[in-house]
TrEMBL record:
One Pfam family cited in the UniProt record for this chain: DCAF17
Lineage: Eukaryota, Metazoa, Chordata, Craniata, Vertebrata
Name under which the protein is recorded: DCA17 factor
Cellular component annotations (GO), alphabetically ordered: Cul4-RING E3 ubiquitin ligase complex
InterPro entries found in the cross-reference section: DCAF17 (IPR031620)
Coiled coil spans: none
Gene Ontology terms describing biological process: protein ubiquitination
Length: 542
């Protein structure tokens, strides 16, 4: 096309171009085929003939973790791929010593469209933190150690990994620093409560290490976190304070360091990230940084999201538990209809959070009702925002008011009306709500106790309107007193259960379409058993 013709057509409308791309007008776009495939997969999953079959079960005495098609057992020493038709072992490492125990882990995935210095960076890897303060980058497929960084000595009990910016900036946090009993009895005061180490990932590079102390942030500090460039400091009595973490790093950085760099720091000579020196505390906060925002909320519960920006808190009194206030971040004004209260009579309280699909909506989950809320401008008043219902999902249950019949000694029948709990286990109750971002489906787990056993089913709902598209029964018994996690990952459903005395179970379901043929085969074949290692766990394939 000539420049004159291109100019005559005028400037492109960005929204129109994006809309046309979503609908597949540009066949050469790299994401078109992927979006079409996911659309087809969603239709296949939701059609009536598609079933989810329990193909694999395992039990363990140690916690079981799941990340992107990989199941981790034995404190990440054994990795099982759940993508294949029958889950298979990717790697099995020798049993590690107590000092090599992995405290926490994050999955690291390659960013799109970036040139990276090493071929290993283009494959998924696992960042793990050990009990002896080693940070390791492992191959997600083989368990091979790709990078090894020593963080600090035994004075810093580093225990937790989290994302500041997902897949970009990682934070390592210590357990709360406590003085020995003898030191406390001697009246010695502990000022430093937490240690933080911050890294850029892919390639892994050191940004800084710092202390969080009472001297700077106050004597009532109880916990700290970093998220999206914000330092979140929690205090007793429910106070939450926010600071600009990036500004803190820039203002109080004494000297930048690189991993592998030789240094002479405060009388110590060593190599950054190598034993025995580890990382230098190159960020020293000498004064209280400027406060961005503070709020008081019951149990420090505080969330930010929506558009325009809003936050959710619970008034800081026990009697308000289960009551949520949605307020503007700009001026703290309560939104119209911003008080959300389901008025439930429950043992376990309802919960609320901003929808993870980045739509700015809010999900409020009660025992028998899920409300998806949205923020919108009030008509004729653009300065005010109101909370309205987008859609609701209701549990399939009967009237919660029951009649108890008793007979007196004289034979007289007495009927007494009882108000049962809203989360009574004999009534269908919502336990888990999640979002599958690639298929744009909202998933819910509802449980009903039938006799001594609990029966659960996983439902898939349209994320835009809440319409029920598919229901998948979970075959194993569900005890509501146990801890449960359910993952819905494209064509896979995975249920991890924690029983008393640290007993863990994992149930894997995979999508099948030709159900008649599968049922005939399963009736003829006995379950296959494969040993993961000598004297090890038994894996059952169905």
């Amino acid at each position: 096309m000539s420049p004159q013709k291109a100019a005559s057509r005028g400037p492109h409308n960005v929204c129109r171009l994006l809309g046309r791309r979503v609908h597949g007008f540009y066949a050469g776009d790299a994401g078109v085929a992927h979006r079409k495939n996911l659309g087809l997969l969603r239709k296949i999953i939701c059609q009536e003939s598609t079933k989810f079959k329990n193909v694999w079960t395992t039990h363990s005495a140690s916690p079981i973790a799941y990340e992107r098609g990989r199941i981790y057992l034995d404190n990440y020493q054994c990795c099982v791929s759940s993508i294949a038709q029958e889950p298979r072992i990717l790697y099995q490492k020798p049993k590690c010593s107590k000092s090599e125990k992995i405290e926490d882990a994050l999955l690291l995935e390659c960013p799109l469209g970036e040139m990276l210095p090493s071929p290993s960076h283009y494959k998924s890897s696992l960042i793990v933190l050990t009990a002896q303060n080693w940070l390791l980058r492992l191959s997600a497929d083989s368990g091979e150690v790709l990078e090894k960084i020593y963080l600090a000595g035994s004075c810093c009990r580093l225990r937790y990994l989290s994302w500041d910016t997902p897949q970009e900036v990682m934070v390592v946090k210590s357990a709360q620093n406590k003085l020995p009993a003898a030191a406390r009895q001697a009246g010695i005061q502990q000022s430093v409560l937490f240690y933080l180490a911050v890294f850029q990932v892919l390639p892994l590079s050191f940004i800084g290490m710092l202390e969080i102390s009472k001297k700077i942030f106050g004597n009532t500090i109880t916990d700290v976190a970093v998220s999206n460039g914000i330092l979140i400091v929690m205090h007793s009595m429910g106070l939450v304070r926010l600071y600009d973490f990036q500004a803190i790093c820039e203002q109080f950085m004494e000297q930048p360091f690189s991993l592998g760099q030789e240094f002479n720091w405060n009388g110590q000579v060593g190599v950054v990230g190598k034993y025995p020196f580890g990382l230098p505390f190159n960020i020293k906060i000498t004064d209280t940084p400027p406060l961005l925002f503070e709020a008081s909320s019951l149990e420090n519960a505080f969330q930010i999201g929506g558009y325009p920006w809003h936050y959710i808190i619970t008034p800081n009194k026990k009697k308000h538990k289960g009551v949520f206030h949605i307020c503007s971040l700009k001026d703290n004004a309560l939104a119209k209809n911003g008080i959300q209260d389901m008025k439930c009579c429950v043992l376990e309280p309802d919960w609320i959070y901003f929808h993870p699909d980045m739509s700015g909506r809010i999900i409020h989950v009660g025992p028998n009702l899920i409300k998806v809320l949205k923020l919108q401008e009030v008509k004729n008043n653009t300065d005010q925002v109101e909370v309205t219902e987008d859609f609701t999902i209701v549990a399939n249950r009967e009237n919660c008011v029951d009649s108890a019949v008793t007979v007196t000694a004289s034979g007289r029948v007495v009927k007494k009306r009882l108000n049962v709990l809203d989360d009574d286990p004999e009534q269908e109750t919502f336990k888990i709500v999640d979002y599958e971002d690639e298929l744009d489906l909202l998933s819910t787990v509802a449980v009903t106790e039938v006799g001594a056993d609990g029966k659960a089913h996983l439902d898939f709902h349209c994320n835009d309107r809440g319409i029920l598209l598919k229901s998948v029964p979970l075959l194993e018994s569900w005890d509501v007193t146990y801890s449960h996690e359910v993952y819905f990952d494209k064509d896979l459903v995975l249920h991890i259960e924690q029983k008393p005395n640290r007993r863990f179970s994992c149930y894997v379901y995979q999508m099948v379409c030709d159900t008649a043929k599968d049922e005939e085969c399963s009736s003829c074949e006995k379950p296959k058993r494969v040993s993961c290692r000598k004297g090890g766990r038994i894996f059952e394939y169905f």
